[in-house]
Write a structure and sequence with these properties.
With 538 residues, this protein is of the alpha/beta class. The chain has 20 helices and 17 strands. Strands 1, 2, 3, 4, 5, 6, 7 and 8 form an eight-stranded mixed sheet that branches. Strands 9, 10, 11, 13, 15, 16 and 17 form a seven-stranded mixed sheet that branches. Helix 5 runs parallel beside helix 6, helix 13 runs parallel beside helix 15 and helix 17 packs antiparallel against helix 18.
């Protein structure tokens, strides 16, 4: 059987082998995403529905415009931790009454919607996306508050979420809270600090302390409805602006609230019609080598993502400086009718020429207020005596300087490798891209697993020599294997996505659609490029 399978593999073309490998990775991705979709599991979802309630995803589906796309963000948050994948939140960008909104929904089937440390990271990133792209923020609230066993990791930083809600309001960025159930303790401040509040009759319970705690603290005996029910807050405290008769009515009221925001985009709209890509996006599955050390031509990916050539867009991709610094491919294109600049690694390593070319291109994009798209497949900047003497540090710093001080919106997609300072120069997470997505083929770390383990072995060998001790290579081989395995695991896209180091792992074939949504969101505000940069070491 093994020989037959091997023979079959050998008969496949290179593209077919790559496609088969990518499809396997996509199957794995769908299995991991299913863990987030199932919420707290069948038992708790059934119990939730028996109470006459909709799930978080059903609430979102009813909230967004029929037939529109919902771009879910960070679905794998918490992957590899002790908490449920998804971190008890569903969040993403959806169109409500024609308005793009950032939606955050507590998942009450996961520990009653209690927030754990990963929920906090996910909600903070969602708030950041809403702020930078000036999106109305809708909270679909039903949470028991903080996950008490991990309160030490939540309580102090958690206050930032309430602070950010008030700052959003001060920026005239609307905030809407729809309360479907419990919103207690600190969670009471989500509706308390929102511009608009809708509460569901006989379901919403909003109070700083529930009846048992009130009795312990003051001796008063009370009940949920008198203390924090939807009707009380709508008729007496005034903390609720609208009393919904049920969940469907609450969603209707939320949609009407958005419709009355008088919301309009302040940025430029796409110009004219656009054509579908010149090459079939389905073929993106055929491009990525199974061994990331093997380079591939990013132009083949670009031509399957950007608008096709034709009237008004004679060339799909206008490459800039094609004969100089050829390990980095840069140029101009349109995507869903919007002009973008693209930087894509043509070969893994970045040298001085590539760094200088990138810095110039980023400055040009800022001169003409054009968003930038970074497509990663890099092992980092070149090392060695020749390159150090040639100024690789100052040239790499020049590129990172340009990325750091660029003010046009940045989008990042990690297609393959993203190692070392190459991750920084190509606008990794630390450099605040508006959005960052990874493909299932992506890997990211300080360096490759074999290189890192090899460096540790060299250091251990030199340390033993300095101490006059023998170096036991056989004994160290076990440590080396362990380190390689650990770094390999920590380089995988699921691990990085679980840490909220990206906004989601996506199917390569969806890249154009995902980026199109992101560019549309960016249009909420005018784009103004940087007027100046830091000192470039020449």
């Amino acid at each position: 059987m093994t020989e037959t399978m091997q023979d079959t593999t050998e008969e496949l073309s290179v593209e077919q082998q790559r496609r088969a490998a990518m499809l396997t990775k996509l199957d794995e991705l769908h299995a991991e995403q299913a863990k987030a979709i199932e919420g707290g599991g069948e038992k708790y979802v059934t119990r939730h529905r028996e109470r006459g309630k909709l799930t978080a995803r059903e609430r979102i589906e009813l909230l967004v415009d029929e037939g529109s796309a919902f771009l879910e963000l960070m679905p794998l948050a918490g992957w590899g931790s002790d908490f449920k994948v998804g971190a008890s939140l569903v969040t993403g960008i959806g169109v409500v009454e024609g308005v793009e909104c950032l939606i955050v929904a507590n998942d009450p089937t996961v520990k009653g919607g209690a927030l754990n440390p990963w929920s906090l990271k996910k909600s903070f990133r969602a708030g950041e996306i809403a702020e930078k792209n000036f999106l109305p923020l809708i909270n679909l609230t039903e949470s028991g508050g903080a996950d008490l066993p991990t309160q030490k990791e939540i309580f102090i930083p958690g206050g930032k979420g309430f602070r950010d809600l008030t700052r959003a309001s001060a920026r005239k960025q609307p905030t809407i809270s729809v309360v479907f159930g419990n919103s207690t303790a600190g969670g009471a401040y989500v509706p308390g600090m929102s511009d608009y509040v809708i509460m569901v009759k006989e379901q919403a319970k909003v109070f700083l302390a529930g009846p048992p705690l009130v009795k312990m603290a003051t001796g008063e005996v009370t009940d949920d409805e008198s203390l924090g029910g939807a009707e009380m807050h709508s008729r007496i405290s005034g903390s609720s602006d609208f009393l919904a008769v049920d969940e469907y009515d609450a969603i209707r009221l939320a949609r009407r609230t958005v419709a009355r925001l008088n919301w309009r985009k302040q940025g430029d709209s796409p110009t004219g019609d656009y054509l579908e890509p010149d090459r079939d996006p389905e073929e993106l599955l055929d491009l990525i080598p199974t061994d990331l050390k093997e380079p591939f031509d990013p132009r083949e990916a670009i031509l399957r993502i950007v608008d096709g050539s034709g009237p008004g867009n004679e060339v799909a991709f206008d490459e800039f400086k094609p004969l100089y610094g050829s390990a980095l491919c840069v140029g101009w294109a349109r995507l869903h009718g919007r002009q973008i600049g693209i930087l894509a690694n043509a070969r893994g390593v970045l040298m001085s020429e590539e760094a200088q070319k990138a810095a110039q291109f980023i400055q040009l994009a800022n001169q003409k207020d054009t968003p930038l798209l970074f497509l990663h497949n890099t092992t980092g900047y070149m090392v060695g005596t020749e390159y150090e003497q040639g100024g690789i540090i100052k040239h790499g710093a020049m590129m990172i300087n340009a990325v750091s001080n660029s003010r046009v919106p940045h989008l990042t997609v990690i297609m393959g490798a993203s190692y070392g300072a190459g991750n920084y120069g190509m606008n990794g997470r630390a450099y605040d891209p508006r959005f960052l997505f990874t493909w299932p083929s992506a890997k990211s770390a300080v360096m490759g697993p074999q290189q890192l383990a090899g460096v540790l072995e060299i250091v251990a060998r030199e340390s033993a020599e300095k101490k006059g001790q023998p170096f036991n290579a056989e004994e160290f081989s076990g440590i080396k294997e362990m380190v390689e395995a650990m770094v390999e695991e920590q380089s995988l896209p699921y691990f990085l996505s679980g840490m909220v180091y990206d906004d989601g792992v996506i199917d390569p074939r969806d890249t154009r659609t995902v980026l199109g949504i992101c560019l549309s969101v960016i249009d909420n505000q005018p784009i103004e490029g940087a007027m100046n940069f830091g000192v470039f070491r020449m």
